[in-house]
Amino acid sequence: MAKINLHYRKLSAGYLFPEIGRRVRLFQQENPDHEVHRLGIGNTTEPLTLTVLEGLRDGVERLGDAETYTGYGDEQGEEELRNELARFYGRRNIVLDPDEIFISDGAKPDAANIQSVFSTENRVAVQDPAYPVYVDTNVIAGRSGPFDPDLGNYAGFVYMVCSRDNNFIPDPPQEHVDLIYLCSPNNPTGAVASREELKRFVDYARENKAVLVYDAAYAEFISDPDLPRSIYEVDGAKECAIEINSFSKLAGFTGVRLGWSVVPKALVVEDSEPGEVHRLWFRRQTTFFNGASNIAQRGGMAVLSEQGLKECAGLINYYMENARIIGDGLQALGLEYYGGVNAPYLWLKTPVNLSSWDFFDKLLNEAQVVGTPGSGFGPSGEGYFRLSAFGHREDIEEAVQSMKSRLKL
Amino acid sequence: MAKINLHYRKLSAGYLFPEIGRRVRLFQQENPDHEVHRLGIGNTTEPLTLTVLEGLRDGVERLGDAETYTGYGDEQGEEELRNELARFYGRRNIVLDPDEIFISDGAKPDAANIQSVFSTENRVAVQDPAYPVYVDTNVIAGRSGPFDPDLGNYAGFVYMVCSRDNNFIPDPPQEHVDLIYLCSPNNPTGAVASREELKRFVDYARENKAVLVYDAAYAEFISDPDLPRSIYEVDGAKECAIEINSFSKLAGFTGVRLGWSVVPKALVVEDSEPGEVHRLWFRRQTTFFNGASNIAQRGGMAVLSEQGLKECAGLINYYMENARIIGDGLQALGLEYYGGVNAPYLWLKTPVNLSSWDFFDKLLNEAQVVGTPGSGFGPSGEGYFRLSAFGHREDIEEAVQSMKSRLKL
Predict the structure, then answer these.
(1) Distance between CA atoms of B192 and B206, rounded to whole angstroms?
(2) For residue B390, what is the domain's CATH number?
(3) Is this complex scored with an ipTM above 0.95?
(4) Residue B16 forms contact with A (CB below 8 Å)
(5) Min CA distance, A123 vs chain B (Å)?
(6) Considering CB atoms only, which of B56, B252, B288 is closest to A112?
(7) Which pLDDT value is given to residue B274?
(8) Residues of the domain holding B281
(9) Where are the alpha helices (DSSP H) in A211-305?
């Protein structure tokens, strides 16, 4: 008699975005003549750049010719692309063996699957608030107790509170944990950890033989040259950190699906030898995955060309100009907010202590602007609200104008 | 102190194909002037067809235009593609709700991940021999005991022997099991289950509240109109069967990466209500996966067009003509073989009771032909050998000629 994985039943109701979708649909049904501005989901909106399109076209045409056709490729990713990525890190003086780089179909699957090579008894720490995937996948794997609807958290996880008091960058836990998820630039708060702040986590991880899962998917949105774009800018990180990254936000590949993870051979955990975690991830990927699309990989190579990176920097500047416009609007409204400078997210403190969902409804009803309730990212997100800078300029400007003229503060 | 998932250490040494690669490289180093013919891995070799290329091109061009650009799509897959697939099943009088179809990046990831929505205490039955992914993923999930190197199997799994005696289609287990993996047309044996044979499994599953994981990735290679191409051709299968399928072999998408799974809403297991397994897989996919590439999905829609299917049937005919040529060669050599008629694999009985790996070495050394040792697919594969019909015609003909003239039998 087959039984289900009962850990699924522990998950708190639904994913955040379906509930947002439901409320927006309801609003639109009731107000069919109102245009809704979507600053909710962090989804790219601008077309791919010319060089990258050329790479993807080449990827398609190669499949139409017997001489260049390829079927299954290297499950770890095309060697040429891994070499390019090693060079990409090399520009920041980070030396990686291309064999330490694993091409994937995106940062989300890697962030979701990485926990599976570790023991289900490992204790997990997450930033609070955090991208829900870190939490949900560990719940499903059985590393948590039940969800507490009053506290808004799961028993068994360690929540590292990110608040105004610590500029949204927490200290390492006081207690002992095994797997620590860090995201910088942070989704949802837009905060970026300094080298010193990351070093405290690396030191903690090395002392405790813990593993840092470092999500750097927004690294290229950092403009401040003093801020680290990779965990490996911190000495010793290769012994304790896995870095996850993506072409999604770097090049507009949210729909194309291409990412990568770095699992250093030097990484060690309690019961393993150096190289074993690397080998486990290799085994995991070759068993559960069959490589990223060869078309997407040709596109990825075009992204990493000199011209490709230049064009993609243009895309990022576009979104960061959106962020500036939103930030100026919030400032003009006298609203308190964080982020939006080295990250495409703005983290707004709700006015008059409104709950995140109450502010969601207020913003939707009064200004027809959709954002993301901070409480959806964890208990410490309550009273906050995320606005995304991804969007067409015109929509962003209209959204800001609408907030300025219609929001009753 | 982070610890690894120790179940990984239970896995028997490496994956089959790396060892094949190692032996071939060694042979080539020692015999640099010999050309090697690869009939080992089941990898497509022929270019995509015109209609499908047009679909992929359209997929790329849409990303270059702000009007048609798309980022994250429906994680379950584009509605248009799911509708097309529902129509594809409709042609065989199978009625599916498009919501029961989940688009993925291939059959391998789905075959690997499906176990994760079930209890780790469930008992697993596999065909022996079988595609190694079914076994390895359940080992990693902790559903097996240790590997027995003498028996070549894992404690705790039920191996359903596929032999000449049962035409390589086993009976349902005598004992109680919870998850049953079936592949038809079969990789590696090339055997295809009849409707009556499948009905016995459906009956077993309904009686025992077991789940059938039915891998139909080679369904379109069936030419015999009496043989079922889907498990849902059997009454009652929707209550107990999940079907996994792929564009890889259907359209040459091994590198493009696109597949689908059907999880019927009517499917029930012991501790669930109707619809719950469907909801769990939805939750699994929306949490661990971020959709298949939107380019690949446009290609998939082109495959399912009338003209696309016609062209893809041409590709399949090409490979099946290869199978016929290999089969004729084996017959001329007086070798006993199975399959190759409704499946792109030929399953050869090794002569004079050679072990699978001894025959591998003999075939490589004498005829410079690479195949796959049957023992790599499970203990009952010992003494057998898989030849794949995927390849360029000229290579296939040369391989057969080389076997005919050089193999010492």
Answers:
(1) 22
(2) 3.90.1150.10
(3) yes
(4) no
(5) 8
(6) B288
(7) 87
(8) 51-305
(9) 248-251, 276-288, 294-303
